[in-house]
Amino acid sequence: MLELKNLTVHYGHKRVVHDVSLTLAPGQMLGLAGESGSGKSTVAMSVLRLLPKTARVEGEVLLDGEDVRTMSWGRLRAVRWASASIVFQGAMHSLNPVRRVGEQIAEPMRLHSTPGSVAELLEQVELPREKARAYPHELSGGQKQRVMIAMALACGPRLVIADEPTTALDVVVQAQVLAVLTRLVAEQDLGLLMISHDLSVLAQTCEDLAVMQGGELVERGRTHEVIANPRHPHTAALTAAFPVIGAPQHRWTEPAPAPQPLLRVRDLVVDYGRTRAVDGVDLTIGRGEIVALVGQSGSGKTTLARTIMGLRKPSSGRVIFDGAEVAAKGRALKAFRRQVQLVLQDPSSALNPRHRVFDAVAEGLRVHGVDGDHEALVTAAVERAELRPASLYLDALPHELSGGQQQRVVIAGALVLQPRLLVADEPVASLDASVRGEVVALLLRLRAELGLASLLITHDLGLAWQIADRVAVMHQGKIVEQGPVEQVLLTPSHDYTRALLRAVPQV
Amino acid sequence: MRLAGRIGGAALSLLMVAVLGFFLFRVVPGDPVVSMTRGRPTTEALQAELRAQFGLDRPLHEQFWSYFTSLLQGDLGTSFTFRRPVSEVILERLGPTVLLVGTATLIAVLLGLWLGVRAAWRRDSAFDRVTTGVSLTLWAVPTFWLGMLLMMVTGDLFPSRGMRDTDTPPDFLSQALDVGHHLVLPSVTLVAVVCAEYALVMRSSLLEEMHAPYLTTARAKGLRDDLVRRRHAVPNAVLPAITLVFLRFGLVVAGAITTETVFSWPGLGLLFYDALTGPDYFLLQGLLVVTAGAVVVMNLLADVLHGVLDPRVKVV
């Protein structure tokens, strides 16, 4: 049904896809794995000839035996969506923000004169039919993704391409969306080409797996065989990068005796208007301890972290740091903030694109009026974050660095103030698998060398298993379960923890 | 709630305008009584009487209070030069200005947005370069200079003074044609000035949307290029442009004052210019309150309209 023969794509002199050949039969589910820049999305876009004009495409892209590259514009438009459709990463910006989702689903049906109803399509993806009248911003990430799926199925295509369909969704919603997608594909006997950087997601959905690296196809085979016996080192690295909960080789830290408390949160309540975001939370972080705060999006974990950092006033309750109540304002609050530093999820947006690394790291020193040799302090912090030698990086602008390097700059910016607690909000979620492990290891080393405690906010239970000492599970503003990692993740006592664990895709 | 806040803000702006209008024009050099009686022999006593008649002999704060209280009752005072109520004079001149500003704004909006969309969609094409270059030039050119230049270039093709000829037959069609004929030069001048900005804003706004992922979705669905533009790109890109159209209504008003003066168009702009030479305090105050009021109302409309056009903004 879909056949790629020696597909090669150039942008100018840069080759992004090199000699890729793939076939996909009706009813087959093929996973295409690779890191950012591996060329996997370019392959997907070439199927419907959606690449920008600057792309030079060579080889053949056969859709039902017809070469997409040589089709007339009219024929191409007729083929688009009717023969093959794409589920984009809709939770982000793939839906038009000013049009109702119902209209957007109906649009290709009118265009290709396909019979059918929006209400039925919405029912197929388990959304109430009233949602047709909603605008994208009124829907949650998972609901938007269901809309994207409904839209992709609107014209009864035989091939569906899903490009990172569940990235940016939390585990529970991800599991639901994947279930809907695979059920529909199986029911309607469609071919599915699923693209993801997350091998565990592909392993759970697709029988066949192809792995790309640097524009080339490095491995292809039955999913379980590829994962069990990877022939290419890159496949092996990808497989190893996703921690398996419960596997001793993926547990990188030793349980330590209960340390002295550094931060104590007592009966904390935070209200947003009438909504209670944080509902009576008790949490303790010891000196040098790594505590993972896990839960779905909207569970209140980020609000809790912001309140702990003094960025938001609690409605009631106390935050005690190093034996003293955290001040609400003034110099005392500023002094407290110096000791608690934040690392955000997406380093590319956390860094000012016009600030060089030196300025980005030195900013904290300036804000807090730290005396001393800024250059020496910045160099030390950058090297601590394992950008060595620092002199290579100090003058760089963020866009000249890779994602992993950017995140190290963010971490250096926190370290330069010699904090005692690091609040890390999904610190590795936007990083590629191969880089992820290095950044995780860095956090552990910082704890060992500096005695730095961390509050790790994540929906990634695998990350918690890798490096946390204790886990706190948050659900609807409450901490429903907390304890040592082994206890909570291996013998969970709360139903919600069990539900979270069930949703985690396993390689 | 939000709408109520906006209306409150608009009311506050109007209040500031009323206060500012009173004091601003007292600083304008000149003595209205001297201008009023220019060319006629007057005694000190007569001048004093005139002053008393218009209340100009009273302390400033009393004058302000009487102006302010009558303003609240809708009374804008009496013009020195016309010897008639200010509101009457303004109302009489309102028609020509609304005609000029309305025509020019309508043309400028349609033309500017169209130019901007086309230029952005075919970025770096000859059309884009010419549009952008011409727009930037027109934007930088002083209005009065452009008006005079147009007058010289077109020669006798279009009338360049006033709104109608005296010898036109009185039937409606001939009158309308005559006014239309007179309207050409002033409206072209005004369009040239404001249209350029709309075109530039529309262009940059659409350029920002050009790489939005939802446009890829639309293309993947099989939409023709012009449908992708019309149905998806423009409805998003036009939002900031529409807001700007209303926000920059002040620019149009300022342009209208200059244009009307250059072409002797008998509207509020020319009246403003004439009133300044007095200075005719009450007329100036009245004009300021009316025009500033229009700008404030337009700003309010911009807010409301943005809420209607963009579902992400909640109005009420």
UniProtKB/TrEMBL annotation, chain A:
UniProt-listed GO biological process terms: peptide transport; transmembrane transport
Sorted UniProt keywords: ATP-binding, Nucleotide-binding, Transport
NCBIfam families the record matches: PRK10419.1 (NF007739)
Protein name per Swiss-Prot or TrEMBL: Peptide/nickel transport system ATP-binding protein
Occurrences of domain ABC transporter (ranges): 2-239, 263-501
Database matches in InterPro entries: AAA+_ATPase, ABC_transp_ATP-bind, ABC_transporter-like_ATP-bd, ABC_transporter-like_CS, Oligopep_ABC_C, P-loop_NTPase
GO molecular function annotation: ATP binding; ATP hydrolysis activity
Gene3D superfamilies: P-loop containing nucleotide triphosphate hydrolases (3.40.50.300)
Family from the record: Belongs to the ABC transporter superfamily.
A Pfam family hit: ABC_tran
Species annotation: Lentzea albida
Automatic annotation (TrEMBL), chain B:
GO BP terms in the entry: transmembrane transport
Localization per record: Cell membrane
Topology in the lipid bilayer: Multi-pass membrane protein
SUPFAM superfamilies for the chain: MetI-like (SSF161098)
InterPro entries from the UniProt entry: BPD_transp_1_N, MetI-like, MetI-like_sf
Residue ranges crossing the lipid bilayer per the database entry: 7-28, 94-115, 136-159, 179-201, 237-257, 281-302
Annotated GO CC locations: plasma membrane
Ranges where the ABC transmembrane type-1 domain occurs: 94-306
Protein family per UniProt: Belongs to the binding-protein-dependent transport system permease family.
Protein name, per record: Peptide/nickel transport system permease protein
Native source species: Lentzea albida
Organism lineage string: Bacteria, Bacillati, Actinomycetota, Actinomycetes, Pseudonocardiales
